Amino acid sequence: MSLAAPDRRLDQALEDVTRLLEKHRVLTTFTHRHEGPKRDLLEQLQQRQNLTELHARVNPLHPADLAHVLERLVPEERLLIWQQLEDRQRGEVLLEVSSAVREALMEATSHERLIAATSHLDADDLAYLADALPEDVLRTASRQLDAGERSWLDQSRALGKNAVAGLMSPEVVFIRDDQTVDDALVHLRQRGELPPQTDRLFVVDARNVLKGSLPLQALLLTDPLQPAAAITSTDEVVFRLDDDGEEAAQAFERYNLISAPVVDDRNKLLGRLTVEAVMDFNRLLAERRALERAGLRGEEDLFASTWASARNRWPWLCVNLVTAFIASRVIGAFEGTIQQLVALAALMPIVASIGGNTGNQTVAVVIRGLALNQFEGSNTRYLIYKELMVSLLNGLMWGGIMGLFAWSIYGKLALGAVMMGAMILNLLLAAMVGIAVPLYLDRAGRDPAQGASVLLTFATDSCGFFFFLGLAKLFLV
User: Fold this and answer.
1) Which of 161, 207, 299, 447 is at 20 to 30 A from 392, Cα to Cα?
2) Contact at 8 Å (CB) between 467 and 474?
3) What was the pLDDT predicted at 392?
């Protein structure tokens, strides 16, 4: 199937649902305007017919397609579609929609319906929704799990979603190390169905201690009478429950993994981590960091209420307002200098702007280096030195160009020199802030992208103005 085919299918589904919702809205409005003794009957018949059409259109859709449709509807229409879904569909859709839409759907659904929607989910699905579900709903839904799965669910919640425990699945296929290849094949046939992303069987001993893995390719190409232990691969990437999710994702990328075992402190097999879970984790992490760089507290539903969206944007707007006020006071302190040389007012935004751009480039490089674990004790000093030298070189080059530009326009060599000096100083400062803020946040256990752009803008604006106007006061006025 080509890539365009799924897109066309999604577009068609959204178009069909939108058309039915528009029809429902028009007929509802017409019925309300109709006066007479048969108004209630007409309204009931119209509602039943329209909702039957909606039910017939949305119920065959895949949960991911339903999530795509729901996220593109306004809240009232979204809830109308949500009400037409079967309980099992609701649970599967909750796994697919964004966290903001999931929260809105849960708030509009009774606890009894949420229990019905989630009671059929397996342990790793419940673990994925655990933070969003009300406690009584999660407790009731988890009763259908066996004791081992409930214990794993509690443990994964305790360690959090950013740990491997919150990403792994307890559903795993394994064989004993004293079995033959033929025994393994018989075991697979008896299962009838393999978990998604199964590329290998895990080999354990009688105490469930992991001994290695048996790739499916080796299983199919080996003599059935061969002992499984003889072809078991011991060169295995193994994760523990408390391992960091980002580090696990990097290992999957580095070694091109499809699945990997997860063990406890005694090396006993607990479950597995799959590439699907890692991809979902990376996507959510990238979205969260993009929002935090922009100063948003969390994921925002595009169709959320005006009040909710405004509140989500308040915290860093408040910080930005304070920093902007400080920058304005820096300018205010040099009002006399600006009055004596009006050219300063035209040139000083350039100093702040180029500093902000340089700082954002440094922040991006540092955050990427932190994500790839490239900042180690032995090389951190070199990387800091290198970024400062890059900024110094850029300051000399572009500051020199802007100095010549200012000299040519205003005919003052000293003004050009001040422009060049201010740009060099501001670019060096931008590099230092661009390095220091992410590194400090990372050392403090916070996301290194959180608020970096706001703090960087404050530093490059305030100090850029100070450098430029201060040098101008010293050498021009």
Assistant:
1) 447
2) no
3) 94
Q: Architecture of domain 174-293 in CATH?
A: Roll (3.10)
Tell me what the mean pLDDT of segment 144-162 comes to: 83
The C-alpha atoms of residue 390 and residue 247 are separated, in whole angstroms, by 29
Task: Assess whether pLDDT exceeds 80 at residue 37.
Answer: no
Class of domain 306-475: mainly alpha
**Which residues make up the CATH 3.10.580.10 domain(s) of the chain?**
174-293
Average pLDDT over residues 290-313: 66
* CA–CA dist 153, 162 (Å, integer): 14
User: With 0-12 CB in 10 A as exposed, 13-18 as middle and 19+ as buried, what is 9?
Assistant: middle
At residue 116, φ and ψ (nearest 5 deg) are: -65, -35
Crossing angle of helices 75-83 and 99-107, in 10° steps, is 70
Q: Is the dihedral angle over the CA atoms 145, 146, 150, 156 positive or is it negative? A: negative
Q: Would you state the pLDDT for residue 4?
A: 44
Q: Is the pLDDT of residue 449 over 80?
A: no
- Which tokens is 379 given? 């090389």
More confidently predicted of 411 and 292? 411
Backbone angles phi, psi at 22, to 5 degrees: -65, -40
Q: Which residues contact 77 (CB under 8 A, 6 or more apart)?
A: 21
User: What is the rounded distance in angstroms from the CA atom of residue 177 to the CA atom of residue 208?
Assistant: 10
- In CATH, what number does 11-160 get? 1.25.60.10
| pLDDT, tens digit, 9 for 90 and up, residues 315-329 | 767 777 787 788 888
For 53-79, what is the mean pLDDT? 88
Residue 60 near residue 4, CB atoms below 8 Å = no
Return residue ranges of the chain for CATH 1.25.60.10. Answer: 11-160
**Delimiting residues of CATH 1.10.357.20 domain(s) in the chain:** 306-475
Q: What is the pLDDT of residues 329-375, one digit of tens each?
A: 888 888 888 877 888 888 988 998 898 888 888 988 888 888 777 78
